[in-house]
From TrEMBL:
It comes from the Bacteria. This is 4Fe-4S dicluster domain-containing protein. Keywords: 4Fe-4S, Iron, Iron-sulfur, Metal-binding. PROSITE patterns: 4FE4S_FER_1, 4FE4S_FER_2. Residues 2-31, 33-64 form the 4Fe-4S ferredoxin-type domain. SUPFAM superfamilies: 4Fe-4S ferredoxins (SSF54862). The keyword 4Fe-4S applies. GO terms for molecular function: 4 iron, 4 sulfur cluster binding; metal ion binding.
């Protein structure tokens, strides 16, 4: 059993690790304005998918003895700037926007990111 360590400073709540986990060990809980990601203390599988997919390098697997308890992190959801619906973790959007700004992408394209999928769809059709 390896120890799974998550950095609460690096994790942005994007859920990629949970989607990638073949064993469903990383749990997501959604409330209206918040989302949580719960990480198991360790993992008994010969696998590194969660570590490999994490865009912020927030996860590490080591050969240390795992803690007894899982770690649950909560993230505030952002509201769609058109309809006000909660649709994505704020930290994740900030991370994407920062990366896009580094590439010099125009502000209006970045503003599009602050819309929920339904509003994006209605604007583009
Ligand atoms: S190492 Fe693999 S099985 Fe274990 S928690 Fe990560 S993705 Fe899931
Ligand atoms: S993939 Fe990384 S940043 Fe995204 S929820 Fe998992 S640990 Fe956090």
């Amino acid at each position: 059993m390896r120890k799974l360590i998550v950095s609460s400073e690096k994790c942005i709540g994007c859920r990629a690790c949970s989607l990638a986990c073949p064993e469903d060990y990383i749990k997501i809980e959604e409330a209206e304005s918040e989302i949580s990601v719960e990480f198991p203390p360790g993992c008994d599988m010969q696998c590194t998918k969660c570590v490999d997919i994490c865009p912020t390098h927030a996860l590490t697997l080591t050969n240390d003895t795992p803690e007894k308890k899982s770690v649950k992190l909560w993230f505030e959801m952002a509201e769609c700037e058109a309809c006000g619906r909660f649709f994505a973790p704020k930290m994740m959007l900030k991370y994407i926007i920062r990366r896009l700004e580094d590439t010099g992408l125009a502000d209006e394209k970045i503003a599009w990111l602050m819309l929920c999928p339904t509003c994006r769809h209605s604007i583009s059709h």
